[in-house]
Design a protein that fits this description.
alpha+beta; 60s Ribosomal Protein L30, Chain: A; 6-stranded mixed β-sheet; two-stranded antiparallel sheet; 2 helices; globular
Length: 130
């Protein structure tokens, strides 16, 4: 049994045939790849990697909380960077550590990817629900 989360306040809408997140049998929440969408302007923000990563993780945090979860219970993340340079990786990693830097950070893969030109960072994650 699964529950889909297609609409979350202050988060980007699901613009295609996908859900923002799906919880499976109440145990895991699968959050779709999030982009640096700004809920105030309703647009994708093309700022620095630091700014984009922060917006992405704020969107993920809102989705997780809306589903009844906690970001600290993330078990796995995938980070996609359009330019996987050392500078971009370090900038993303610094912000990522603010959100997941506790004693039990989630597993993670960081991948260089061909993302649409509108943004440079996309992150998806899996969160254990209590």
């Amino acid at each position: 049994m699964k529950k889909t989360h297609r609409s979350v306040p202050d988060c980007p809408p699901a613009l295609g045939p996908y859900s923002l997140a799906v919880s499976s049998a109440g145990a895991l929440l699968f959050v779709s790849g999030m982009t640096p969408w700004n809920p105030t302007t309703g647009t994708i923000e093309r700022g620095t990697i630091t700014e984009q990563t922060r917006l992405v993780l704020e969107n993920i945090s809102r989705i997780v909380e809306d589903a009844g979860g906690k970001l600290e219970n993330a078990v796995s993340c995938r980070v996609y960077l359009s330019d996987l340079s050392q500078e971009n990786f370090q900038a993303m990693n610094a912000v990522y550590g603010e959100y997941f830097g506790g004693d039990h950070p989630p597993a993670r893969a960081t991948v260089g990817a061909q993302l649409p030109g509108a943004f440079d960072v996309e992150i998806e994650c899996i969160v254990a629900l209590e």
